[in-house]
Amino acid sequence: MTIIPVKAAEELFFIYSPVNFSVEISSLELFAKEGKVNKNLEFYLQFVTPEQKAAFREVLTKKIDLPPVVISRFFNTSIGEDILTRLGKGITIQGGSNGKYALRAALVQAAFDPEGFTLINVLKKLPTNMEFQGPLLLGFAQESQKFILATETLIKELRQLTLEEATTDRPVDYSQLTDMRQVGPHKFTKEVWNLTDTSRNRSFYVDVYVPQSVDAEMPVVVFSHGLASRPEDYGQALERLASYGFLVAAPQHPGSDSIWAKEVLEGYHQDAFDLNDFINRPKDISFVIDELERRNATQFQNRLNLQNVGMGGHSFGGYTALAIAGAEIDFENLKQECERAYSGVNVALLLQCRAVDLPQQTYNFRDNRVKAVFAANPVNRAIFGPKGLGKITIPIMFGSGSYDPAAPPALEQAASFTWLGSSQKYWAMVEGQAHVNFSELDAGLSKSIETVTQLTLPSQDLITDYTAAIEIPFFEIYINQNEKFRPYLQSAYAEYLSQGKEFKLDLISQASVPKLIDAIEKFKREHP
Fold it and tell me: Which single residue of 99, 186, 240, 476 could bond 88 by disulfide (Cβ 3.0 to 4.6 Å)?
């Protein structure tokens, strides 16, 4: 909204030295609106099929319904500007300068235009002629295709590794065991604690789920929510844990929660999240455990086991959980990843790259009271790297979704899983899971994704059942030292749960790491 063009762009130039081509935007508009191909555009479309021509026209005219103010403010955040800067290297102002400001002006004005947010409208709103740098855009397209192929390869590999582990697992009749997909036997109450850490001048609330009728020592799990969300968004999963006798404490992270996100859209913040939350999030977790220790005697009659605490986290909360487990930020690795030419393929990397602006020092957030970690859809690969993740030696489980566009498993969890220093590690992946709980965040969002991507998503109930069925036994074994739950951490159990399901659950352990490494290296050799 802040850049009003003196004149609109007339031509788009395609640069692939030594050959340069151009096309008039008016020719694209005529084709988009009326389907007519004039002499200027005929050269480019003479070799395409009628089906490809129809698809191109649909791309030009497809309207995306997004609030204009949201688009405007997002592209003024640090992450939004980072996206534009990366895109602007390939789509430059005529002469070769980065095109980020021209792109932002066109995107924002197209969003506010009565005709709606379409590609042809964005092109019409460009304030100056633009150059499409062929080598860079082709490289980005090839990187995107490689990412898609890597995802497809990973899905097949995890399915195969799950089947292979299942054949060697100890035989178990799971139909005779407790069904971990069901709600547990304990009733619970929910409390909301309002805390202030005076050492950081930081106030936040904590959703606390307290199981009832637990006569023995009570296990504790602390949970960290994702970016732009809140503890309540994970209520279904947290309640399931509490029903099995775990006290669950889920703090709000004020600099990266839904309140901050709302304030960004209202114009109160320029950044999508507070940079300091890379530091504050793990400190919030340790402060919550400190608070549980302070209340243990008076409120819980010293029944809380606070020397064997479980830690869960989702997305940015997955980063938090890994930091608490001992992973350390590797700034050298992070810089290398962020400077890669085509790193914009990975959305999670844009979040991690913000950490480059932190003071360059060693950060150790390890809380020794935490003895096991479940990290769901964690953003982690670049910020920790092999050295940082190698410092984790406690039992750990990764949870992933094969459809996750925000923290894609092929980019964020595959190699990371092999780098974890723990010998007691597991990786579960739900086919079709797409990063967030759409039933909590936006009832219409899953339908929109299915319409745009032509993907069918699994129900949230199935995802919750799968997650609970392996997460609860994981914490029972490594927090409660209850070995009777060991059969549930076998690949054979994932196969049992997947029977008759369109969307399956894959589960591998440390035993599959050598084959996973071989598969990753083979893919790199075949697709350099």
Answer: 99
Estimate to the nearest angstrom the gap between the alpha carbon of 184 and the chain centroid. Answer: 29
The Cα–Cα gap between 117 and 111 comes to 5
Measured CA to CA, the distance from residue 209 to residue 236 in angstroms comes to 11
Tens digits of residue pLDDT in 300-345:
999 999 999 999 999 999 999 999 999 999 999 999 999 875 655 6
188-233 pLDDT, tens digit per residue, is: 999 999 999 999 999 999 999 999 988 789 999 999 999 999 999 9
Beta strands 396-401 and 188-197 are unpaired
Residue among 450, 350, 323, 356 at smallest CA distance from 408: 350
Q: In whole angstroms, what separates CA 502 from the centre of its chain?
A: 23
Angle at 422 between CA 419 and CA 427, to 5 degrees: 70
Element (H, E) at 300: helix 277-300
Task: Map tokens 């319904």 to a residue.
Answer: 65
Q: State how beta strands 188-197 and 130-133 pair.
A: unpaired
Structure tokens at 239: 């309640």
Q: What is the pLDDT of residue 145?
A: 87
Q: Strand pairing partners for 92?
A: 98, 131
To which residue do tokens 């949230």 refer? 460
Torsions phi, psi of 405, nearest 5?
-85, -15
User: What are the chain's domains?
Assistant: 11-128 (no CATH), 151-526 (3.40.50.1820)
Distance CA 329, CA 383 (A): 5
Instruction: Give the sign of the dihedral formed by CA 96, CA 97, CA 98, CA 99.
Output: negative
Which residue's entry shows tokens 């042809």? 120
Number of alpha carbons in the 13 Å side-chain half-sphere of residue 302 = 1
- How many helices (H) and strands (E) would you count in the chain? 22, 13
Q: 254 falls in which pLDDT band (50, 70, 90)?
A: very high
What CA–CA distance (Å, rounded) separates 16 from 11? 16
pTM of the entire predicted model: 0.89
E strands, 178-308, in order: 188-197, 202-211, 220-224, 247-251
Q: Is the peptide bond before 18 cis (omega within 30 degrees of 0)?
A: yes
